[in-house]
From TrEMBL:
<protein>
    <submittedName>
        <fullName>Uncharacterized protein</fullName>
    </submittedName>
</protein>
């Protein structure tokens, strides 16, 4: 997974109507409550890579 792909996931999986994920509904016609699995995963990935960059900067 590249940062670009993760950014795309984050930009699609957004809160939609009635607390559902707009991206899941649009892409897969799936009704997932937001944050859905993809949004959570992408957010975690982002946090991890930011931490990694931070730690690399300290060395
Ligand atoms: Zn989603």
């Amino acid at each position: 997974m590249t940062e670009d792909q993760v950014g795309r996931i984050l930009s699609v999986h957004l809160p939609g109507v009635e607390g559902l994920c707009a991206g899941c509904r649009w892409w897969w016609a799936r009704l997932s409550p937001y944050p859905c699995y993809q949004a959570e995963w992408a957010a975690r990935w982002h946090a991890r890579s930011a931490t990694r960059r931070f730690l690399d900067g300290l060395r």
